[in-house]
């Protein structure tokens, strides 16, 4: 575990599942001497005050970041650039700016124009979450044993990267660095495409005629139920992710569609060996996840 506190004053912008989990863990593990939060929603700010997790809930984003040595932006990816523009003039010299957005290339591009030269930007993506959102949904163990991917552009201050890495290790996470473009392709496969499939399969079921739809809900104890958990995720968050990671997601969707077509063909022509091999490959992936404690 790293030496604590890592930050004097940590500011969380956007107090939902991820911001709330960061704040809870930071408080519990003493990762920051003081915690300040800001959320654009009046109702969320009121709730964060009631929760008593942070030392201060600011009324503006500028006031929240003013004296912070680290600012972590935890808003939907489509809102990150706007937040950056809002806070940039108020960021303290030497402060570290980070985010938790599920896509990275677009976020880095959108932020680049706003980051002052005296601030280091260290983009991050925790590969951990749930289908819940809002200020009450966070919990301090969310990142325990999970991966956090850092995608700092070339030339980013190494000391700043080291402190963000130490912070996430203090949250119980494993940390790895990768190129933003590589991250986006990988995330498209392991996270964005599965969500797209889950939303789509629920829409397909919803589109059935009345009697069949009733039965889907009544007898959903099988495979369908696992998709509905993922499909319960926040619409704004996923709208933003799909639009921000358009190219990589469309590429993975095209590959998936080809493989689904190949399976359809095997079923149509009774190619039992192909079907069995495909199911076996799926099982092997599940087994590896269990072995890597990521299931
Ligand atoms: N939910 C998940 O499982 C994961 C989400 N992420 C990423 O983390 C970020 C946050 O996601 P969640 O915490 O799940 O969302 P959430 O919906 O629980 O919370 C987002 C919060 O941001 C606030 N907000 C929106 N626009 C704002 C603005 N302009 N200024 C200040 N506050 C604003 C909202 O009022 C809300 O309270 C997103 O970028 C998402 O892609 C990353 C990993 C996992
Ligand atoms: O709840 C689930 O199954 C998730 O996959 C959560 C999640 C959502 C978005 C991310 O960028 C990372 C993780």
From TrEMBL:
Annotated pathway: Amino-acid biosynthesis; L-tyrosine biosynthesis; (4-hydroxyphenyl)pyruvate from prephenate (NAD(+) route): step 1/1
GO molecular function terms attached to this record: NAD+ binding; prephenate dehydrogenase (NAD+) activity; prephenate dehydrogenase (NADP+) activity
EC number(s) reported in the record: 1.3.1.12
Pfam family, one: PDH_N
Keyword NAD: yes
InterPro entries: 6-PGluconate_DH-like_C_sf (IPR008927), NAD(P)-bd_dom_sf (IPR036291), PDH_C (IPR046825), PDH_N (IPR046826), Preph/Arog_dehydrog (IPR050812), Prephen_DH (IPR003099)
UniProt KW keywords: Amino-acid biosynthesis, Aromatic amino acid biosynthesis, NAD, Oxidoreductase, Tyrosine biosynthesis
Reactions performed catalytically: prephenate + NAD(+) = 3-(4-hydroxyphenyl)pyruvate + CO2 + NADH
Domain Prephenate/arogenate dehydrogenase: 8-295
GO biological process: tyrosine biosynthetic process
Record family assignment: Belongs to the prephenate/arogenate dehydrogenase family.
Protein known as: prephenate dehydrogenase
């Amino acid at each position: 575990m790293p030496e604590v506190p890592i930050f004097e004053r940590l500011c969380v912008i956007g107090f939902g599942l991820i911001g709330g989990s960061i704040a809870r863990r930071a408080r519990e593990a003493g990762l920051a001497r003081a915690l300040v939060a800001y959320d654009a929603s009046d109702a969320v700010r009121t709730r964060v005050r009631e929760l008593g997790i942070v030392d201060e809930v600011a009324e503006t984003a500028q006031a929240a970041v003013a004296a912070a040595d680290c600012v972590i932006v935890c808003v939907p990816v489509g809102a990150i650039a706007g937040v950056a523009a809002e806070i940039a003039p108020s960021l303290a010299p030497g402060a570290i700016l980070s985010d938790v957005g599920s896509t990275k290339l677009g976020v880095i591009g959108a932020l680049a124009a706003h980051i002052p030269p005296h601030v280091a930007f260290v983009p991050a993506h925790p590969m951990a979450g749930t289908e819940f959102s809002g200020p009450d949904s966070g919990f301090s163990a969310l990142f325990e044993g999970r991966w956090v991917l850092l995608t700092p552009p070339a030339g980013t201050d190494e000391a700043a990267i080291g402190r963000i890495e130490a912070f996430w290790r203090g949250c119980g996470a494993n940390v790895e660095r990768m190129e933003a473009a590589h991250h986006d392709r990988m995330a498209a496969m392991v996270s964005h495409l599965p969500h797209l499939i889950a939303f789509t399969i629920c829409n397909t079921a919803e589109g059935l005629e009345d009697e069949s739809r009733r039965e889907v809900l009544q007898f959903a104890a099988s495979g369908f139920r696992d998709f509905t958990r993922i499909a319960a995720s926040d619409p704004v968050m996923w709208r933003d992710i799909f639009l921000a990671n358009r190219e990589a997601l469309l590429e993975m969707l095209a590959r998936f569609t080809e493989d689904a077509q190949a399976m359809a063909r095997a079923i149509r022509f009774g190619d039992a060996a192909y079907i069995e091999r495909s199911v076996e490959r799926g099982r092997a992936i599940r087994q590896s996840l269990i072995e890597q404690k990521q299931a």
